[in-house]
């Protein structure tokens, strides 16, 4: 293609990992579906978990990642 | 006083194996305690009856939990077996290097949030601790990322300074790849690693779960190991299309591999958790049934003994009057 010998693809330059990139692409594909399949696919996209980082053996406050798509 | 003594007697009867030589002695002991200060007699049967009722309720609850776990297991098992194909290409390409020796290790231990599932969480934690010992040494650093409440509770006791992250409430929605990949992304962004080791219980069958370790190397480590030859060394034979360099491709592959392997590991662990819960609840119902049998025997013996005593008293009273 007419790209220069790009050392880094655009999404990595923007700070995304491959996982984030593929998740965005996947949700775009899911958005192209028609109605009955669309809601079924939307159910497969739900994200919910609670993360807490630890520092010096003590947990800091946990934050809940609860969005329907990773961003 | 009498109640307490009777409870002790009852417990001793229940705990000892059923032996039909001692009931006579036990019965007289119950009888002597049974006649309280007022000569009241119904105390013992009431206590045993209450205990029988509560044991029966527990049996019903554990049976129900087993049914629930069995039905959930059927659905998750299908998904787990289908997800096994997602990491196989990676192992075919990159091989499996559990014995790789690197400076920074991150141990991802997968456990459950809910309890009553037998011993799987303890085995996972045991394997994690063993792996920690194995990978620690001078200039080496090992950290934990714990998925699930139960693992956190066990690890916090002696390794709380090595825990880096803790993730809970993972099973609030049914498990899907998007969720696990977001989680994998979070872990990758927050941890520095040369090798990631995921510990989970692999689901062999409803009664057998195998603690397993999956190793994922960072791209730099892959480079280093490829010099040693083997599967990684033959990566250079592949032609890379597109504008990416080999380092680029390896980076993408490493991230994707982690996400896929983590997805499979989470599913397998969920399956094992349900299977372990099924067998734990099953043995619990069986134990409750046995306990109920023993209690029924005690109850009947006590009841018959009190009836016999009453009869004896009446008859002796009557004979005293006539004779």
From TrEMBL, chain A:
Enumerate the subcellular locations listed in this protein's record, separating them with semicolons. Answer: Mitochondrion inner membrane
Q: Its domain of life?
A: Eukaryota
Describe its function.
Answer: Mitochondrial membrane ATP synthase (F(1)F(0) ATP synthase or Complex V) produces ATP from ADP in the presence of a proton gradient across the membrane which is generated by electron transport complexes of the respiratory chain. F-type ATPases consist of two structural domains, F(1) - containing the extramembraneous catalytic core, and F(0) - containing the membrane proton channel, linked together by a central stalk and a peripheral stalk. During catalysis, ATP synthesis in the catalytic domain of F(1) is coupled via a rotary mechanism of the central stalk subunits to proton translocation.
Query: Which controlled-vocabulary keywords does the entry list?
Result: ATP synthesis, CF(1), Hydrogen ion transport, Ion transport, Membrane, Mitochondrion, Mitochondrion inner membrane, Transport
Source organism lineage?
Answer: Eukaryota, Viridiplantae, Streptophyta, Embryophyta, Tracheophyta
GO terms assigned for molecular function: proton-transporting ATP synthase activity, rotational mechanism
Q: Which PANTHER family match?
A: ATP SYNTHASE EPSILON CHAIN, MITOCHONDRIAL, ATP SYNTHASE SUBUNIT EPSILON, MITOCHONDRIAL
Q: Which GO terms describe its cellular component?
A: mitochondrial inner membrane; proton-transporting ATP synthase complex
Subunit relationships? F-type ATPases have 2 components, CF(1) - the catalytic core - and CF(0) - the membrane proton channel. CF(1) has five subunits: alpha(3), beta(3), gamma(1), delta(1), epsilon(1). CF(0) has three main subunits: a, b and c.
Q: Which InterPro entries match?
A: ATP_synth_F1_esu_mt (IPR006721), ATP_synth_F1_esu_sf_mt (IPR036742)
Please report the name of this protein according to its UniProt entry: ATP synthase subunit epsilon, mitochondrial
Q: Which family does it belong to?
A: Belongs to the eukaryotic ATPase epsilon family.
Q: Which GO terms describe its biological process?
A: proton motive force-driven mitochondrial ATP synthesis
**Which species is listed as the source?**
Musa acuminata subsp. malaccensis (Wild banana)
Chief place where the protein resides: mitochondrion
Q: Which Pfam families match?
A: ATP-synt_Eps
Automatic annotation (TrEMBL), chain B:
Q: What is its main location?
A: mitochondrion
Q: What does this protein do?
A: Mitochondrial membrane ATP synthase (F(1)F(0) ATP synthase or Complex V) produces ATP from ADP in the presence of a proton gradient across the membrane which is generated by electron transport complexes of the respiratory chain. F-type ATPases consist of two structural domains, F(1) - containing the extramembraneous catalytic core, and F(0) - containing the membrane proton channel, linked together by a central stalk and a peripheral stalk. During catalysis, ATP synthesis in the catalytic domain of F(1) is coupled via a rotary mechanism of the central stalk subunits to proton translocation.
What is the official name of this protein in its record? ATP synthase subunit gamma, mitochondrial
Superkingdom of origin organism: Eukaryota
According to its UniProt record, what is one Pfam family this protein matches? ATP-synt
* GO terms for MF: proton-transporting ATP synthase activity, rotational mechanism
Which UniProt keywords are given for this protein, alphabetically ordered? ATP synthesis, CF(1), Hydrogen ion transport, Ion transport, Membrane, Mitochondrion, Mitochondrion inner membrane, Transit peptide, Transport
Q: What membrane topology does the annotation report for this chain?
A: Peripheral membrane protein
What does the sequence similarity comment in the record state about its family?
Answer: Belongs to the ATPase gamma chain family.
| Species for this entry | Musa acuminata subsp. malaccensis (Wild banana)
Q: Which GO terms describe its cellular component?
A: mitochondrial inner membrane; proton-transporting ATP synthase complex
Subcellular location, record wording = Mitochondrion inner membrane
């Amino acid at each position: 293609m007419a790209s220069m010998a790009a050392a880094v693809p655009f999404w990595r330059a923007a700070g995304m990992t491959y996982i984030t990139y593929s998740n965005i692409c996947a949700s775009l594909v899911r958005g192209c579906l028609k109605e009955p399949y669309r809601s079924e696919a939307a159910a497969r996209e739900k994200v919910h978990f609670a993360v807490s980082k630890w520092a010096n053996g003590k947990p800091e406050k946990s934050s809940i990642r609860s969005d329907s798509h990773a961003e | 006083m009498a109640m307490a003594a009777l409870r002790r007697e009852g417990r001793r009867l229940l705990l000892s194996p059923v032996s039909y030589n001692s009931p006579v002695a036990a019965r007289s002991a119950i009888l002597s305690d049974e006649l309280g200060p007022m000569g009241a007699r119904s105390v013992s049967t009431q206590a045993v009856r209450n205990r029988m009722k509560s044991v029966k309720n527990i049996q019903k609850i554990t049976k129900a939990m087993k049914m629930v776990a069995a039905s959930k297991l059927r659905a998750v098992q299908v998904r787990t077996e289908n997800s096994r194909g997602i990491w196989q290409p990676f192992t075919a390409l990159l091989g499996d290097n559990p014995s790789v020796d690197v400076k920074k290790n991150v141990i991802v231990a997968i456990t459950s949030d809910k309890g009553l599932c037998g011993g799987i969480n303890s085995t996972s934690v045991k394997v994690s601790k063993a792996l920690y010992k194995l990978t620690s040494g001078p200039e080496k650093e090992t950290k934990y990322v714990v998925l699930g409440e139960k693992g956190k509770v066990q690890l916090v006791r002696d390794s709380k300074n090595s825990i880096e992250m803790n993730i809970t409430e993972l099973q609030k929605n049914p498990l899907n790849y998007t969720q696990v990949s977001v989680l994998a992304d979070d872990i990758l962004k927050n941890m520095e690693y040369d090798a990631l080791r995921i510990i989970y219980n692999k689901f062999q069958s409803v009664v057998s779960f195998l603690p397993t370790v999956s190793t994922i190397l960072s791209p730099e480590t892959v480079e280093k190991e490829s010099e040693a030859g083997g599967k990684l060394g033959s990566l250079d034979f592949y032609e890379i299309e597109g504008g990416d360099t080999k380092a680029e491709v390896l980076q993408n592959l490493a991230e994707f591999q982690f996400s896929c392997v983590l997805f499979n590991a989470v599913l397998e662990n969920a399956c094992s958790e349900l299977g372990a819960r099924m067998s734990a609840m099953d043995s619990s119902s069986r134990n409750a049934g046995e306990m109920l049998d023993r209690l029924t025997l005690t109850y009947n013996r006590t009841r018959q003994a009190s009836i016999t005593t009453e009869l004896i008293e009446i008859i002796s009273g009557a004979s005293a009057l006539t004779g």
